[in-house]
Amino acid sequence: MKLTRRGLLKGTTALAVGSALPMPFISRTLAASGKITVGMEAGSPYDTFYRAKAPDFTAASGVEVEFQSIPHDAMRQQFVLDAMSGAGGFDIYIADQVWLPEFFEKGFIRDLSGLYSDADKSDFSKTSIETVTHKGVQVALPIMVHNCAMYYRKDLVSAPPTTWDEYRAAAKAATSGDVWGTMVCSKQGIEAATRLHSFYQQAGGDLLDAGGKPTINSDAGRAALEFMTALVFEDKSAPEGVLELPDMQGRWLEGKLALAPVWPYLYSLSKEPLGDKFGIATAPGLVNPAGTVYSWGFAGASGAKNIEGADEFLKWATSTDCLYAFGKEWLNPVPRASAIDLIAADASIADGDKAAIAAFAASAAAGKSMTMVPQYSQLLDVLGIMQSGVMSKAMTIDQALADGQARAEAAMAAG
Questions:
Q1: Sequence-distant contacts of 211-217: CB under 8 A, at least 24 apart
Q2: Which of 110, 181, 240, 246 has the most CB atoms lying inside 10 A of its own CB?
Q3: Sign of the CA dihedral running 201, 203, 207, 208
Q4: Of 66, 69, 70, 56, residue with least CA distance to 26
Q5: Burial class (CB in 10 A: 0-12, 13-18, 19+), 210
């Protein structure tokens, strides 16, 4: 997902790095010491931000921080190899939510449930905590929680749609000449899959039932596929073809798309070409609003050599002050309500930027987490095959649902 949630902020422009962050929770008499090693994605906004702020943490806590920057494509393998070898090369690392169920079940990461007090935990949106909770255990601390919000052109759409019917009507009305009402990402891959998962949830369903059994061939699945095909083939408000995110992004930035469900990274890219012509809202639904929610957060390695120091860093890295500064500098959604409040009250932040950050936070809070099972990547593969098959007319909806159900059952049975 490099162009999407994994590369979410690489297209944004950072503001000036802020002042030192206060450390109210660290008691000098009880502070940890020594050194910790933190694994980061090379070149990512989190790497840049936390490297710059780490001296503040060290000054207040006495804990030195060494960062190990790893290329994106090698991150998961590096963390797995370290855990399996017992080398203890990391105390903490940045983790994609998709990895968390597998890593916890295999003992690679530890239970962090006790790090937040109930009062502190209540400052996070319910959805953000769900994204880092597996089988009732909090296995990471979130720093960025997001989903696809609905970007809309104010000059082409009278108001952002709140239901699927309104979405169809608005997209159809806005389609004219070389301007399309919307677009459906349908090329087999992560973008098609995550959007189809969102449509399942918006239709009131999900990929698994409460017992962990696949529910691909369901009323919600049928509604999701029928909705997408209606936009393209019935309403003709979205172009035909096997399209992907760059197609949607390109048309949007050219001013030739009225409604675009895309990740938060698109906001900074849109400011110059579109000015004040666009807004951001929560994606509409049939039963439930919003897209499927994903997160990045810090996980505590089970092989950590300095757990005390690691815990201090984890609390600092997800504190109100840290997340406020992170959201301000990178114009990204953050999961703490108190951090969002500080951003809203900051006179140095443009009103448009404040509104965007608030909209992304509201969108994520309204959504539902991805399915927290180790097989989630395989389930996404199933959805990608289904969506591509239906939108290319290689499969009927009935065929896609039946095939998807069989594939999902096989994936879950394989463990």
A1: 212/373, 212/412, 213/409, 213/412, 214/379, 214/405, 214/408, 214/409, 214/412, 216/382, 216/386, 216/401, 216/404, 216/405, 216/407, 216/408, 217/401, 217/402, 217/404, 217/405
A2: 181
A3: positive
A4: 56
A5: exposed
Q: pLDDT value at position 183?
A: 97
Give the sign of the dihedral formed by CA 31, CA 35, CA 41, CA 44. Answer: positive
Q: Which of 229, 149, 243 is nearest to 189 (CA)?
A: 243
Question: What is the pLDDT, as a whole number, of residue 27?
Answer: 38
First-to-last C-alpha distance (Å) of the chain: 23
> Cβ–Cβ contacts within 10 Å for residue 269, how many?
16
Largest CA-CA distance found in the chain, in angstroms, rounded: 69
Give the amino acid at 85.
S
| C-beta separation of 230 from 393 below 8 A | no
Indicate if the alpha-carbon torsion angle 300, 16, 274, 242 is positive or negative. Answer: negative
Give the integer Cα–Cα distance in Å for 41 and 101: 20
Helix, strand and coil in the chain, % to nearest 5: 45, 15, 40
Q: Which residues contact 136 (CB under 8 A, 6 or more apart)?
A: none
Q: What is the DSSP letter of 348?
A: T
Q: What is the pTM of this model?
A: 0.90
Pure H helices in 62-117: 75-85, 100-105
d(CA 197, CA 314): 31
Helix and strand element counts for the chain (H, E): 16, 10
Place of tokens 């503040």: 56
Q: Under 8 Å CB-to-CB from 329, ≥6 apart: which residues?
A: 14, 15, 16, 17, 18, 49
pLDDT lower than 50: segments of the chain: 1-31
pLDDT tens-digit series, residues 108-141: 999 999 999 888 999 999 999 999 999 999 999 9
- Residues 300 and 204: their CA atoms lie apart, in Å, by 34
**CA atoms lying within 13 Å on the CB side of residue 137:** 13
What span, in angstroms and rounded, lies between the C-alpha atoms of 69 and 407? Answer: 36
Nearest residue to 55 (alpha-carbon basis) of 27, 92, 17: 17
Helix (H) or strand (E) holding 142: strand 141-146
- Tokens representing 293 are 């929610």
Which pLDDT score, from 0 to 100, does residue 32 have?
57
String of b and e for 99-127 (b: at least 16 CB within 10 Å)? bbbbbbeeebbbebeebbeeebeebbbeb
At position 144, the amino acid (one-letter code) is M
Cβ atoms of 328 and 112 closer than 8 Å: no
- Structure-token pair, residue 269: 């890219």
What three-state secondary structure class fits 303?
Answer: coil
